[in-house]
Amino acid sequence: MIVLGSCSSAEKDVSTDLINIVPGKNIDTTTLPKITFEDSIYNFGKVAEGEIVRFTYEFENTGNGPLIISRVETSCGCTTAKDWSGSPYATGDEGKITVEFDTNKRPGHQKKSIDIITNSVPAVKRIYLEGDVAGPLTE
C-alpha cells in the first residue's frame, strides 16, 4: 500500500532558483536573501580547560527573498553547530545557530570560525568564537 500525502505552503516552497545562484551572472542582488547576525563574534573570555563553551548566535533574514542555510561548517572537530533549520527563512524571519566548543586539550588563545553557507551573495558568512583557555580543569 502506498500512501501519498502533501503539506504545502507557498512561503515554504523551495525551487532550484533559490539555491543555484551562478557567480558572475548579472544578478539583481536586491531580490536575494541576506543573513544578518546580531553578534558575529563571541568572546567567551577566560575558561578552564575541559569546559564546554556554548553560545547561540541569533540572525535575521534582512534580504528580500527566502534564505536557505545549506550547511554550517566549523573550523575544527572540537567545535560543533546545531539548532539551525534547512527550511527557508522568509524575509524578516529570525533564527539561531548554537555553537559548542570543547576546550579539552586546547589551552591558550582560541579563535574558531564557523562558516554559514546560504543562498545569498556572498554565499558564505563567517562568524567567530574566541577566548582563552587556561590550564587543565582541576577537580
Please describe the structure with a list of short key phrases separated by commas or semicolons.
single chain, 139 residues, mainly beta, Immunoglobulin-like, four-stranded antiparallel beta sheet, four-stranded mixed beta sheet, elongated, disordered N terminus
Short description:
0% of the residues lie in helices and 47% in strands. By secondary structure, it is an all-beta fold.
Q: What report would you give on this structure?
A:
Helices cover 0% and strands 47% of the residues. The protein is elongated. The chain has one domain: Immunoglobulin-like (Sandwich). It has no helices and eight strands. The N terminus is likely disordered. It has a four-stranded antiparallel sheet, with no helix packed on it. A four-stranded mixed sheet has the order 2-8-7-4, with no helix packed on it. The protein has 139 residues and is mainly β.
Structural class: mainly beta
CATH class value = Mainly Beta
Low-pLDDT runs of 5+ residues are 1-16
CATH-defined topology: Immunoglobulin-like
Q: Whole-number radius of gyration?
A: 18 Å
DSSP helical segment count = 0
Q: Spell the H/E element sequence.
A: EEEEEEEE
Sheet with the most strands: spatial strand order:
1-3-6-5
Number of domains: 1
Main beta-sheet strand count, sense and barrel state: 4 strands, antiparallel
Shape verdict: elongated
Span of the ends, CA to CA: 59 Å
Give the total of beta strands: 8
Topology (elements, then pairings):
Layout: E1 35-37, E2 41-49, E3 52-61, E4 69-74, E5 79-82, E6 94-102, E7 108-118, E8 124-136
Parallel strand pairs: 2-8
Antiparallel strand pairs: 1-3, 3-6, 4-7, 5-6, 7-8
